[in-house]
Structures are given as structure tokens and as C-alpha cells.
Amino acid sequence: MAKKVKLSEMTDMFKDMDILSLEGVTIEGDVEIELNGLGGGFDPMLAALLGQENAVLAQHFARLASMFGVPVGIGAPAAGVPAAAPAISPALAAPKLKDLIPAKFDVANIAEWATQIQEVPIGNTSADGGSRGKRVLVGGEKALPFFPDAPMPNRNQVTIDVFDMRIGLAKAVKENYDEVMDSPGEWAKKNVEKFNADMITIHLISTDPLVKDTPAKEAAKTVEEVLQAVDVPIAIGGSGNPQKDPEVLARAAEVAEGERCLIASASLNLDYAKIAEAALKYDHDVLSWTQLDMNSQKELNRKLMKQCNVPRDRIIMDPTTAALGYGLDYAYTNMERIRLAALMGDEELTFPMSSGTTNAWVPVSHGWLAHH
């Protein structure tokens, strides 16, 4: 009765028998090659697969021959290296690309974008009645930021944070500021001189009743310290406490009279009317802050203009930049929707934007005035 034996099994059998050589031995039998999964019809890769099987057979026969003492000449092809596939018919070959398809790129204003974003200056120089060494301009675009369809008349401005008290910071940030965190003036100076800040944002967080409850009068002295330390435009922010902030920001606006600071911020949750009144009385701009909602942004801007009589060239929007919860993608999308609506004529949204990117812990800004 015929018995099927694999060549690999035969090799192992002779190894176990400790045979040095065989003489006058003939191995007879049929060689069967089992190929699965080829399907019907001619396959251009069939020859390559057969070559692969033959390479395996040749390797086994070479091993058997060496065991029987038969000299082996040129080694068999290594298993696993397929033989070269036969040439494919020219009719089946992919066409060669001779020339790139010509394309034309036109830069032109998009017809639907007919409204220009309001240009807003921040900071008064001596010529304007202040003491800033420069005035920055934001806004003025007729397209989305960095779009080639219209020039950006004013580049993005970066304002770096200063706090009125020592706060917890990530190690990578703290190691750059540790020696100046107890002096807001020195902190601001380092931001300008070492990190080339276009502006400074002073956060009066110690005024929060749940932190130090610093009086508004004392917080105002911190603002004066920063104004004397640097000559770049500054933004002034409170602690976010809805009861304390209007008083703090009004007093800060008073001591910074004539400097055209950015008062941050007027909000639907705060007494926006009191903040707007102080900004106008002492010659400042107003940051219109909302929480990731375009309709709320429209409402607040409308109230600032209609109820509080804030001129258009004194309003900057902050629709909020969020990393957690809603996420950066949602924040950016909200900004894009606001900007597209403005470009298409919604006059309640045609204002430059501020993006508080430090709150989101990212190094770049989609907005136009980047808090970092």
C-alpha cells in the first residue's frame, strides 16, 4: 500500500537514524504539488507560484542529497523568494503618464465675500495722547485668515499673559518665569524683551473673592506697574467673578486712561453696560466675550453698539477657544462660521477676533489676536 511522505518528514527521518551516507539506494515515487486558491482560468501569477513551489522542492532535495553524501553544486534558490513573474501583456499594462494635466489657479475675491472686517487699533502712542511705544491694528480683512483671495492688511498680534500673583504652571512654562512671577512688571518686561510679545495681557485673578479678594484699588496699582514696565499695548482682564469684575475693570480702566487698552471683558453674564461705560469714558477698547455660540455673540455685539453706544472701531470679539468639552475643532468651526457670516454682510459680526489659546494649551491661534 502506497504511503504519502513529505520531503520534510523524510529529511527528519534520516536525521534521527544517524546515517552518514547511503549507497545503491533509489527513492521512487510521485511528487505532488498542492496549489489552493488559484481559481479558474489563466492567472499571470501562476508561473510565479509554481516557481515558488519548485524552489521549495529543490531546497528539500538538496538537503537530502547532502545527507546521502552526494556533493551539492550551486545552492537552490532560497525559499520564500518568488521567481520573477512573467512579463504582462502590453494590453494589460497601466498606461504611462506622459504629461501632467495642466491646471490654472486664479486668485480673486469671492463674490459672496463683499464685507470688510472692521479695523480696530489698540494702544495710544504719544501722538494719540498715550505713552505706548507703538499702536497695533487688528482686523481689516476681506477673506478668511491667510486666504490668498485677499491680502491681510494687518498681521496677527500675540499678547502674552502676566498674572498679578504666583500661580501653578506646567514645568516647561514655570522654568522660564519662576524668577519673575512675584513681580507683574518684571514678568511683563521679560515677555516683551525675551519673548517678543506684541502686547501684554494682565490677569487680575487675585481679586476673586475665593482667591485673595484683592480690592479693586490695589489691583489698579498692578495695572499701573505693568504700564510703566513696558510700552506695548496691554489688555486688562479680571478674575471672571461676575460680581467683582465690573468694579475691578472700571477702576483699571480709570488708572490706564488714554492708553487705549483692551478691557477684557464685557459679557452677557457680567454687567457689560458698566464695563462698556468705563471703556468709553477712559478711551479704551472692549472685548466682547461669549461662549461658543454665534447667536450669543450677535446679541452681545448688538447690545454694545445699540444700548451702550460703543463705536464699531472699539469692539473685538472673543467667541471662546476651548480644548476640553466642546474641543478645539468646535471652537475653530464656530470662529469660521462667524467670520463667513461677517464677510457675507452680517454687520453684527464684522469685528476682529481674539483667541485665548493659553486656555486651550496650544501654541497657535486660529483667531486674529492671540492670547498666549
Strand runs, count: 10
Indicate the mean pLDDT. 83
CATH architectural name of the domain at 120-371: Alpha-Beta Barrel
Gyration radius, rounded: 38 Å
Query: What is the 3D shape?
Result: elongated
**Series of secondary-structure elements, N-terminal to C-terminal:** HHEEEHHEHEHEHEHEHEHE
Q: Termini distance?
A: 87 Å
Q: In order across it, which strands form the biggest sheet?
A: 8-7-6-5-4-3-10-9
Hey, roughly how much beta strand do the residues contain?
5-15%
CATH homologous superfamily placement of the domain at 120-371: Dihydropteroate synthase-like
Question: How would you characterize this protein structure?
Answer:
- The chain is α/β, with parallel strands linked by helices and 372 residues long.
- The chain has a domain at 120-371: Dihydropteroate synthase-like (TIM Barrel).
- It is 31% helix and 12% strand.
- The protein is built from ten helices and ten strands.
- The protein has helices at residues 7-16, 46-67, 171-177, 184-193, 216-229, 245-255, 272-281, 294-306, 328-343, 357-360, and strands at residues 120-122, 136-138, 157-163, 199-203, 234-237, 262-267, 285-289, 315-318, 354-356, 369-371.
- The strands form two sheets. An eight-stranded parallel sheet has the order 8-7-6-5-4-3-10-9.
- Helix 1 (7-16) runs parallel beside helix 2 and helix 5 (216-229) packs across helix 6 (245-255).
- The longest helix has 22 residues, at 46-67.
- Mean pLDDT is 83; it is low at 360-368.
